[in-house]
């Protein structure tokens, strides 16, 4: 199947025209200059809407100047090393649609300060397969704060087992 690529705001989208879906990653050309990535739930290309539903393995790896990323509620998993070596990443918003987090997701993210998750406590206790755990944070800033947007409470990585 022929692959179609669209570019917008320093992000690369691979379009599946049959299913009208798109994956998103940091474009190599912009990887050293992209500072903020607000991923849309829907990308419109030539009048056609594509649901952005996937970030590939290592999709934002080495986006060294990326400071902030906001993920839409159309994405349900974050793969191994998705944000590996995003050296300046400080802030990320993750919707409650994301239930699967693979190890080393934030490896090398030494500047990461805050992760905001929509409903952390409820997802952790009531969702089968929900696996936001310490392995996800291997090699990143150990002092990162996880904020539960629903309750406003903040947690440290070591607190995850107590949720």
Class from secondary-structure proportions: mainly beta
Distance separating the two termini = 44 Å
**Treating each run of at least 4 consecutive H or I residues as one helix, how many helices?**
1
Strand count, sense and closure of the main sheet? 6 strands, mixed
| Rg over CA atoms | 16 Å
Number of strands: 13
Task: Estimate percent helicity.
Answer: under 10%
Q: What characteristic shape results from the CA principal axes?
A: globular
Q: Uncertain regions: pLDDT < 50 for 5+ in a row?
A: none
Order of strands in the sheet with most strands: 4-7-9-11-12-13
Description:
This protein is mostly beta strands and 163 residues long. The protein has one helix spanning 120-126, and strands at residues 4-8, 11-16, 21-26, 36-38, 42-45, 48-54, 68-70, 77-78, 91-94, 100-101, 114-117, 145-148, 154-156. The strands form three sheets. The chain has a six-stranded mixed β-sheet with strand order 4-7-9-11-12-13, with no helix packed on it. A hairpin with a 5-residue loop joins strand 12 and strand 13 (154-156). The chain starts with a strand and ends in a 7-residue tail after the last strand. The model has no long low-confidence stretch (mean pLDDT 87).
Short summary:
It is built from one helix and 13 strands, in the order βββββββββββαββ. The protein is mainly β and 163 residues long.
Q: Could you outline the blueprint of secondary structure elements for this entry?
A:
Elements: E1 4-8, E2 11-16, E3 21-26, E4 36-38, E5 42-45, E6 48-54, E7 68-70, E8 77-78, E9 91-94, E10 100-101, E11 114-117, H1 120-126, E12 145-148, E13 154-156
């Amino acid at each position: 199947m022929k692959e179609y690529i669209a570019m917008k705001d320093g992000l690369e989208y691979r379009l599946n025209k049959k299913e009208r879906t798109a994956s998103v990653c940091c474009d190599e050309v912009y990887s050293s200059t992209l500072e903020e990535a607000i991923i849309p739930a829907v990308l419109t290309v030539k009048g056609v809407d594509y649901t952005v539903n996937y970030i590939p393995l290592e999709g934002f790896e080495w986006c060294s100047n990326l400071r902030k990323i906001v993920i839409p509620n159309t994405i349900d998993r974050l793969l191994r090393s998705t944000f590996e070596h995003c050296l300046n990443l400080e802030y990320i918003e993750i919707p409650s649609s994301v239930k699967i987090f693979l190890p080393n997701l934030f490896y090398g993210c030494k500047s990461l300060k805050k992760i905001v998750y929509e409903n952390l406590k409820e997802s952790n206790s009531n969702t089968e397969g929900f696996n936001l755990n310490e392995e996800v944070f291997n090699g990143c800033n150990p002092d990162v704060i996880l904020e539960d947007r629903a309750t406003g409470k903040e947690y440290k990585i070591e607190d995850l087992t107590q949720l």
